[in-house]
Amino acid sequence: MREKNDKPIGILGGTFNPIHHGHLRLAIELYERLDLAEVRLVPAKQPPHREQPSVSSEFRLELVKIAIMGVNGLSVDDRELRREGPSYMVDTLSSLRQEFPQRSLALILGMDAFLDLYQWHEWERLITLAHILVVNRPNSQLSDQNKTMQNFLKQHRISDKKDLQSEKFGKIWIEKMPMLTISSTQIRNIIAAGKNPTYLLPATVLEKINIYKLYH
Ligand code: ATP
Ligand code: MG
Predict the structure, then answer these.
(1) Contacts of 99 (CB under 8 A, 6+ apart)
(2) Is any atom of ligand 1 closer than 6 Å to the C-beta of 117?
(3) Which residue ranges make up each domain of the chain?
């Protein structure tokens, strides 16, 4: 019992417009490699840094639910949908911290998201609430020009992943893993062009998209 409670809770936020196998493999691989208690997928109601998604948050949430049905280790967390206004990650982590004061929390970010982190609302508070797990993504590399994130990384990076369990927040771990070069943008473009995105996302999700003619 106690052992399970030392495991970090992974948090994967995103627009999930729509969810795809890149998101899902990322979540499952981190769950297994870093021995996480679970990975919570947290769809954004209103992403602060981009225009409002074409598909409603309720529908995007529904697609996430369908995608993870029956999968061990993955869960969906709808707290951003229950909040008004922009979905700031700092509010989401604060709320999780209140719910789990004693647990290790770990925010999962693709490298693309990590590079822009300094633009997020109250971004320096994020690391006081949770660890950050960064995963490589094709075409995204931390350059020497990005001094802010270089310094941030230098300050918090750990070389032993056990620290993710012994500490509850404050550490950055970079996980090197092969990525699927899939993006939601690519899937939306394929559907809009009348082509077939099958095998890029779960069949059950695509079925739902087709029934409701989303992204067409
Ligand atoms: P869009 O093309 O609309 O930006 P996306 O595919 O990038 O969509 P998001 O919802 O923006 O998906 O991403 C949520 C999180 O998942 C981010 O941290 C992002 O880095 C990560 N992610 C998205 N696609 C992949 C992938 N193929 N492999 C690994 N991580 C991914
Ligand atoms: Mg993206």
Answers:
(1) none
(2) no
(3) 4-181
